[in-house]
From TrEMBL, chain A:
InterPro entries: AAA+_ATPase, ABC_transporter-like_ATP-bd, ABC_transporter-like_CS, ABC_transpr_LolD-like, MacB-like_ATP-bd, P-loop_NTPase. It comes from the Bacteria. The keyword Transport applies. One of its GO terms (molecular function) is ATP binding. PROSITE patterns: ABC_TRANSPORTER_1, ABC_TRANSPORTER_2. Residues 21-259 form the ABC transporter domain. Keywords: ATP-binding, Nucleotide-binding, Transport. It comes from Streptoalloteichus tenebrarius (strain ATCC 17920 / DSM 40477 / JCM 4838 / CBS 697.72 / NBRC 16177 / NCIMB 11028 / NRRL B-12390 / A12253. 1 / ISP 5477) (Streptomyces tenebrarius). This is ABC transport system ATP-binding protein. The lineage of its organism: Bacteria, Bacillati, Actinomycetota, Actinomycetes, Pseudonocardiales.
TrEMBL record, chain B:
It is found in: Cell membrane. It is a multi-pass membrane protein. It comes from the Bacteria. The lineage of its organism: Bacteria, Bacillati, Actinomycetota, Actinomycetes, Pseudonocardiales. This is ABC transport system permease protein.
Length: 260, 850
């Protein structure tokens, strides 16, 4: 597929010392069957490197959320392979996959997704409680400090603002130093100022702590915080933008819309 | 609004279905109870409870089977009143009467080899030949019985016993065993629920006493209505039946009176079911309201008034009540007919009782369901109406608010009411066989719904206490940690699960304990009272022919022997207030030697013909004392006067009044002793005496001689076999409450689907989630068991005190553990199954669908 070549060109164009921490190879996902079949991913390949912040953009129905879910082991592709930190995610049995997600991946979702009955601190430390890697108290303290959550730790989600809730979610995604953090529209429910704070923090996690982040978004301002933006359309990568700004992203999107 | 309510129900059809079932069962049982009651009443009025239709006689005259106090209240008598020879003569003298024939019915059994034909199920009666003519029961072979030894029998009896005309037949009556000659065999219509033996009229009077009914033939051309008036003018107490009414002239089956009792039993059951249904509907709606807070808030936000939201929730409840009420009431008709067959097969009601379809029972059954549902819907509706519109716009899932002060207040009020009733019952503390004791028992059991209501209202507060205690140890595992957090975050949901379990455990254990407490108390009291060395007992519900006890008393070596026969007498107090008293016919000179009955005042030696012995409790209540004269009515209404010879001390399970048997027996339809108690003279050879006693009872098959301890064992075995009906009740109610609890649990667990999905996204395995669900269910179930046991324990202590005077309660450990296990099973099924099902979907999908 033409788009596939385009993608491999673009990954080659950013030479890295390290090998990719995560990559997707010819991932294909079809929903339904027969006439009603919808091709969500038409054989997508991409590589993601250590300490890189990648945004995935595309119009609705382009397959960006499906790709994220297949990469994160939340959904299984029909064909292709996803490898994260040397583990073939697509081949892991369900139990091992659950443990792998808990220990090696972090998640931030649009709808905050905190457990309503637990306090902020308990939500953040859920992974260790579930048998994940041991809690690094110093790292937790640092996270809480940077995220400005120090005085909110013993509040329940209902007692926190949206921005605070999302910062708790970010802390939970980072507390076990995962190989990759997946973020699905993390600022979708936030106002632009709060969204900016959350993204600024994600940015710092990448820059200062070498965190790898893959984020799906439709917000050019959010994408501007990333190192690069991959554009997805009809289940395939069609373009890539390095060192994006809001304006550049908007322009690319306009071109993409024009294509349709 | 109805349409919205309907849609709401459809979208949550599983919990709705369970609510529907709960109400349906309540409505069905209610309808069935009313139908059976109605059938019994109307069948009694039509005479269909009787095996005798009396088609061939013109009129039936009897004395009304009731006693009227001077105040005009009528009280039903236990026995048919007798017509004296003078009264029969007077009847004969009434103008327009051609002839009068009396009929006496008395227990009479044909012996077929070593077997007595007839038992508690198919009774066997002796009659005057006049009944055969009045029925008619037509001779198919032979001659009518004319001589004192002649006998005619039903063709069914003849074939079952293999009797032939002219043969000598052995017959057992209360007078013992006699020989009769079979002169005729008759056939009659009807299903033969009773065996019939016909004797010459004079013989019937000799064996069975004075006439119970008289068959009157008018002279040709006499108008029956006019004649009836003239008869009533001559005999003011007479009841004259003609036409259709004749059918109720002669009802012998004592179970005819029980039919209403079965209706009452079902009615109690229906009431319990509806109370549970109310709790279920309320819990189900509460859970659904807290799950739909956002949706309801949205409704409020777009302009629905709080009244409209309230109407929506009550509307759902009423819809459930209406649908289930109608369906349940329809099912109740089938249930009633099945119930009649079942009870008849168990020998609890006459087999001749037909089902009377009655629209009012149907409407009442359905109506009660609607009302119950509406009442149950009010609390959740009120809560729903308080949801603020703004909640719809909030992003986070809001935990429900804390328990309201109003709810706590009402909870405390019903707790106070429940405890108050308990204390009142303790304060009254009269033995259960007295009117005051009956009030104490009712007060005791009325406290149960109040205590349950208190638990329902204070549930959140109470469960917080429980969690506060166990949270520490729980926190050591993930499941425990999540469970304690989740319970603390939403106390109402946890309480909503614990309440049905409480209801289940409390009702099931009270029913079970009540039965076993009563039984154990009775056996214990009976055992403590019984001082006889030897006991003769007869077949179940048939007893020992009364003549046997006199013969046993005459055996050398027997110091004292008394047959005992239980009945009721009717006491008219000083202020014309009338009451029944449990009475026992005994041999006055022997009773104090076979039963331990300590004297309070008077003396047993003064207890002779023309006197009575009364229990201390009754003496106090009625204001009687030793030496005083009292007026009373014998079981068949005959007025009598007697002097109180002795006031004795007894427990709540013994008769209030003792009468000399010889005075009581002529007034009983079935003069058979329940048992004969004997003590032996000192120094006699027991084996020799026993051999002699066996020789006395030998002619009557079915009589057994046992030692005191054997007798007590047999009584224990007999009574434990009797409580199947209570077990059935427990299974029904327990199962019903269990289903309800599952219903609430399913709703509650389904409400946590999103959290399960969130946890799994955060890396929890299914095992993690299931351990959480298990611990949380366990907390609620254990709390429910605890509360239920506390309530039933308190009530049962009070009940034991009323029965035995001590707080001692027998704990039926095995059944109790069974109830607890059932509660645990209910909890696990109700939470683990839906949790497991919820996790079949991938976490992300599960989240997006919520």
């Amino acid at each position: 597929m033409g788009e596939g070549e385009h993608t491999s060109d673009s990954t080659r164009s950013r030479p890295r010392v390290t090998s990719p921490v995560a990559y997707a190879h010819a991932v294909r996902k079809v929903y339904g069957s027969g006439d009603s079949a919808v091709v969500a991913l038409a054989g997508v390949s991409a590589a993601f490197h250590q300490g890189e912040f990648t945004a995935i953009m595309g119009p609705s129905g382009s397959g960006k959320s499906t790709l994220l879910q297949c990469m994160a082991g939340l959904d299984r592709p029909d064909q292709g392979q996803v490898v994260i930190a040397g583990e073939d995610v697509t081949a892991l049995p369900e139990r091992r996959l659950t443990a792998f997600r808990r220990d090696r991946l972090g998640f931030v979702f649009q709808a905050f997704n905190l457990i309503p009955t637990l306090t902020a601190r308990e939500n953040i430390t859920l992974g260790p409680r579930l048998g994940g890697p041991e809690l690094d108290e110093r790292w937790l303290a640092q996270l809480v400090h940077v995220l400005g959550l120090a005085d909110r730790l013993h509040h329940r989600p209902a007692e926190l603002s949206g921005g605070q809730q999302q910062r708790v979610a970010v802390a939970r995604a980072l507390v076990h130093r995962p190989d990759v953090v997946f973020a699905d529209e993390p600022t979708g429910n936030l106002d632009s100022r709060t969204a900016g704070q959350v993204l600024e923090f994600v940015r710092r996690a990448v820059t200062e702590f070498g965190q790898t982040v893959i984020m799906v978004t439709h917000d050019p301002a959010a994408a501007a915080h990333a190192d690069r933006v991959l554009f997805l359309r009809d289940g395939a990568f069609v373009d890539e933008l390095v060192s994006p700004t809001s304006e550049k992203v908007l322009a690319r999107l306009a071109v993409l819309e024009g294509l349709s | 609004m109805i349409l919205m309510a309907w849609r709401g129900l459809r979208s949550r059809w599983i919990p709705t279905l369970a609510s529907l079932l709960a109400v349906m069962l309540g409505a069905g049982l209610g309808t069935a109870a009313l139908l059976i009651q109605e059938s019994a009443t109307s069948a009694a009025a039509r005479g269909e409870l009787s095996a005798w239709h009396l088609h061939a006689t013109d009129m039936v005259v009897r004395l009304a089977p009731e006693v009227r106090t001077t105040g005009g209240l009528s009280h039903e008598l236990r026995e048919q009143r007798r017509l004296s020879p003078e009264q029969l003569n007077a009847l004969n003298g009434v103008r327009g009467v051609e002839s009068v024939a009396g009929e006496t019915a008395f227990p009479a059994f044909v012996l077929a080899g070593d077997r007595m034909l007839g038992d508690s199920r198919t009774r066997s009666w002796g009659h005057s030949w006049s009944l055969a003519r009045a029925e008619p029961a037509n001779l198919v072979r032979g001659e009518p019985p004319r001589g004192p030894n002649d006998l005619a029998v039903d063709s069914r009896v003849a074939s079952e016993a293999g009797l032939h005309l002219g043969e000598t037949v052995q017959v057992v009556t209360s007078g013992g065993r006699h020989e009769h000659r079979l002169t005729g065999i008759v056939e009659r219509q009807g299903e033969g629920f009773e065996h019939a033996l016909f004797f010459a009229p004079a013989t019937a009077v000799r064996l069975g006493g004075q006439a119970m009914v008289a068959f009157v033939s008018p002279r040709p051309g006499v108008d029956p209505a006019d004649l009836a008036k003239r008869i009533q003018a001559t005999l003011p107490e007479a009841e004259v039946l003609w036409g259709e009414e004749k059918g109720r002239g002669l009802t012998l089956d004592p179970r005819a009176q029980l039919s209403g009792g079965m209706g009452q039993f079902l009615g109690t059951m229906a009431a319990v079911c509806l109370v549970i249904a109310a709790f279920v509907i309320s819990s189900t709606l509460s859970v659904s309201v807290s799950q739909r807070r956002r949706e309801l808030a949205l409704l409020r936000a777009v302009g629905a008034s709080s009244g409209r939201v309230r109407a929506l929730v009550v509307g759902e409840a009423v819809l459930v009540g209406g649908l289930a009420g109608v369906a349940g009431a329809l099912g109740g008709v089938g249930l009633a007919s099945a119930g009649l067959r079942f009870f008849a097969n168990q020998g609890l009601i006459p087999r001749s009782l037909p089902l009377t379809p009655d629209p009012t029972s149907f409407l009442a059954g359905a109506g009660v369901a609607v009302v119950t549902a509406a009442v149950a819907g009010t609390l959740p509706a009120w809560r729903a109406s308080r949801i603020e519109p703004g909640e719809a716009l909030r992003a986070a899932e809001l935990p429900p608010r804390r328990t309201g002060a109003g709810r706590r207040l009402w909870g405390l009020v019903s707790l106070a009411a429940g405890v108050g009733l308990l204390l009142v019952s303790m304060a009254v503390a009269a033995p259960v066989n007295t009117p005051r004791g009956a009030i104490a028992v009712s007060t005791l059991f009325v406290s149960v719904p109040f205590l349950l209501l208190a638990v329902a209202l204070l549930g959140p507060v109470l469960i917080r206490g429980v969690v506060g205690v166990v949270a520490g140890p729980l926190r050591t595992c993930f499941g425990g940690f999540m469970a304690s957090r989740s319970v603390q975050a939403d106390l109402r949901r946890a309480a909503g699960v614990a309440v049905p379990i409480t209801v289940m455990v409390a009702t099931a254990s009270i029913l079970l304990f009540q039965d076993s407490t009563t039984f154990v108390a009775k056996s214990r009291n009976y055992g403590q009272r019984l001082e006889a060395d030897l006991v003769v007992a007869g077949p179940h519900q048939v007893g020992v022919p009364s003549v046997i006890s006199d013969r046993l008393a005459g055996v050398p070596g027997v110091r004292a022997a008394s047959g005992v026969v239980s009945t009721q007498i009717f006491v008219v107090g000083q202020n014309d207030e009338a009451s029944y008293a449990e009475a026992m016919g005994v041999s006055p000179n022997a009773i104090s030697q076979v039963l331990r009955l300590p004297v309070v005042s008077g003396s047993w030696s003064a207890f002779t013909e023309g006197t009575l012995a009364v229990s201390q409790e009754t003496a106090t209540t009625q204001g009687w004392s030793a030496g005083g004269n009292i007026n009373y009515r014998l079981p068949d209404g005959t007025p009598a006067t007697g002097r109180v010879a002795v006031v004795y001390e007894s427990d709540a399970t013994f008769a209030n009044v003792l009468l000399p048997r010889s005075e009581l027996l002529p007034h009983l339809r079935e003069p058979f002793d329940t048992a004969v108690y004997m003590t032996l003279a000192s120094g006699v050879d027991r084996a020799t005496v026993e051999r002699e006693l066996r020789r006395v009872i030998h002619p009557v098959p079915g009589l057994v001689l046992t030692s005191r301890s054997e007798h007590l064992e047999q009584m224990a075995a007999q009574s434990t076999g009797d409580n199947w009906i209570v077990s059935l009740f427990v299974v029904l109610i327990g199962g019903y409450a269990g289903i309800s609890a599952i219903n609430v649990l399913v709703g509650s667990t389904n409400g946590q689907r999103r959290q399960f999905a969130l946890l799994r996204l955060a890396g929890a395995r299914r095992g993690h989630v299931l351990s959480w669900v298990t611990v949380e269910a366990a907390v609620s179930v254990v709390t429910g068991i605890l509360w239920g046991s506390l309530i039933s324990g308190a009530v049962m202590c009070g009940y034991a005190r009323l029965l035995t005077g001590t707080f001692w309660v027998p704990l039926p450990l095995a059944p109790y553990l069974l109830i607890c296990c059932a509660a645990v099973a209910v909890g696990m099924v109700g939470s683990l199954v839906p949790a497991r099902l919820a996790m079949r979907a991938r976490p992300l999908e599960a989240m997006s669908t919520t």
